[in-house]
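In the previous lecture we treated proteins in isolation. Real proteins rarely work alone, and many bind small molecules. This record shows how such a complex is specified: first the sequence, then the SMILES for uric acid.
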Amino acid sequence: MSIILGPHQYGKAENRIVRIYRDSPRHEIHDVNVSTALRGDFDAAHLRGDQGTVLPTDTQKQTAYSYAKEKGLLSIESYGLELARHFVDDVEPVSGARIEIEEFAWERVLVDGSEHDFTFVRKGQEIRTAAITVEGSGDAQREWVIGGFKDLVILKTTGSEFHGFLEDEYTLLQPTTDRIMATSLVAQWRFTTTDVDWEATYAGIKQIMVSTFATVHSLALQQTLYEMGKAVLEAYPFIAEIRMSAPNKHHFLYDLAPFGLTNDNEVFNADDRPYGLIQASVLRDDAPDAGPAWTIAGGFA
Ligand SMILES: O=c1[nH]c(=O)c2[nH]c(=O)[nH]c2[nH]1
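The predicted 3D structure, ligand included, written as tokens:
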């Protein structure tokens, strides 16, 4: 028996970078959280404490900030690709890089009915996400881009049923033909190309998902997720796969009978836990291999 070094990667997590575009009086803001991770032969650092091939995490951080100026930070997917390609192409021991990014949205405040040039309020909606992996060099280089969002809280007050489910001796749940359906949606989609209008695609996918949530008469959250994923794949041939995670944010009808009141789906208790957690992926049956697109080396949390 011998003890060996397993998979490893290292980088600078959660660089909070705010990039302002101020080329005109109407400023633009891009507010992101960037994590870098480098892979390659870093055995010596682990086995002997030899840092000769280790590009410090501090340097990775400095690069992330510099690239926000040098390469620009208009779309998190293209910025992440620039950063990952740089580490793999220009830093000798690096054979793979993964860049994970969250973007916090801001919107202009209105002053006298007009959008202000340089004052913003944080948008309460979803956080946009990207995960970029670049591996190998030269003609053998491969790239994987995942776009997505998290924390998209969405609710419909009707148009949702849940009945006909399997029952056993522990089943208490009453069937319903009219309930609130709500979730805080996480979605990630895998691109098959990097030749993409990232901004338009993001806006389009989000719009398709929210409108499908609204218009599908739901018999279960599972069905709604599948329909949302299917609609995205039908609209975007260059998306191979979409993965969704949806906590079922239960709204239970509150019992007002003790007060002599009726409750015709009007007053609910928004319960925060436990919650059903419905997770589903939808993909093309000819989707190209995902490679390391979804996973980080070693499966670290
Ligand atoms: O949409 C739902 N899916 C379920 O699997 C489930 N289970 C449950 O108790 N309520 C619901 N709702």
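Summary for your notes: The mean pLDDT is 97. The chain has two domains: 1-140, 150-293.
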